[in-house]
Amino acid sequence: MKRIITLSIGIFFLMSSVGIATENDTLNSYPNYKPIVKVFANYHFGLNDYSTKNAFEITRAYLGYDVKMSENFGFKTNIDIGRPTSDSKYDYVAFLKTAALQYQKGKIQINAGLIGLNQFKLQEKIWGHRYIYKSFQDEHKFGHSADLGVLLEYKIVDNLIIDATIRNGEGYKKIQSDQTFNGALGLTFHVWKNFVLRGYYEHSEKSINQSVYSGFIGYQAKDFMLVGVEYNYMQNYSFVQNHNLTGYSTYMTFIINDKFQLFGRYDNLKSNKLKGEIVVWNSTKDGEAIIAGVQYKLEKNIKISTNLQYWAPDKNDLNKEVYTFLSLEYKL
Q1: In this predicted structure, what is the pLDDT of residue 177?
Q2: C-alpha span between 293 and 320 (Å, rounded)
């Protein structure tokens, strides 16, 4: 019953947003409404004896709207509906992902409230296939995509942007009021028109401090190829002393034409060995992933992909998993 009520509210919210957007776009320049609708779905099946999950899935749906109130002010709200953890009694759980007030004037942009974060936004953009597989930091929980706080972006010059964030630190799925805050600083440098560098640092303080360092190089020749290389290091993962993670991810997309793309990606995650221990502390989750496939654009906002996803754990007594996916994204 709760799922039916939630779905009904979502449909009503969506229809209302679309209707209001059409009316306001016709009558006035401001406020200007843009509905947000995005859905990720797939069918997958295993290719070896240890890959036993065969199913149709809708893994994520986003519903919301982006409102431009005036030349300088706007706000964005977005609901994230996804699959919960395996021990949940619900098939889907809805979270308020963003509810942000936006201000932009000249070289300054400020987002405040429940905001989208910049930690791996650029990497996700260059990877370009979020509906197939999360970006490295998102997949391995190096950070959050949204949280309560304030994000300031300042364009120092046309090709150099600095961003600073202060936020709660728990992410949008676990809003808490405590004495711990997360501070972050990022720098994005567009060296040439199609070449970009980004450095990022964040720090959280508790009895044990936690820090994240990341570097990224991206090539954005959109009419031909997208390439990304990122390196990530987390110190004191989950605020546990000397539990450190190191990982890198490389990905490349070849744009054949307006409809077809070929893509590939390689990830590698490692942890350190603690003093007196025989194996690394994260041995059951360390490993490497390979994703490769082809994407076809059915319409402007509909993508379909057939792809292979391979996971090889570092621990010898854990099994390798190989799956074939038919993945789908559709959005407004």
Answers
A1: 63
A2: 19
pLDDT at 90: 79
171 contacts 193 by C-beta, under 8 angstroms:
no
Output 193-197 pairs: Cβ under 8 A, ≥24 positions apart: 194/219, 194/220, 194/221, 194/222, 195/219, 195/220, 196/122, 196/220
For position 262, what pLDDT does the model report? 98
Amino acid at 132: I
**Residues of the chain whose pLDDT is less than 50?**
1-9, 11-15, 17-27
pLDDT at 91: 82
Residue-level pLDDT at 181: 85
Structure tokens at 37: 């609708």
Whether 15 and 8 have beta carbons less than 8 Å apart is answered as no
User: 246 to each of 170, 232, 279, 299, how far by Cα in Å?
Assistant: 21, 6, 16, 39
In whole angstroms, give the CA distance from residue 202 to residue 118. 11
Place domain 2-331 in its CATH homologous superfamily: Porin (2.40.160.10)
- Tell me the C-alpha distance between 104 and 65, whole Å: 18
**Residue 35: what residue type?**
P
DSSP string, 164-195: EEEE-SS-TTS---SS--EEEEEEEEEEETTE
For tokens 């390689």, the residue is 266
* Residues composing the chain: 332
DSSP string, 215-237: EEEEEEETTTEEEEEEEEEEESG
Please give the model's pTM, rounded to 2 decimal places: 0.88
The closest alpha carbon to 246, from 209, 276, 286, belongs to 286
Contact between residue 126 and residue 226 where contact means Cβ atoms under 8 Å apart = yes
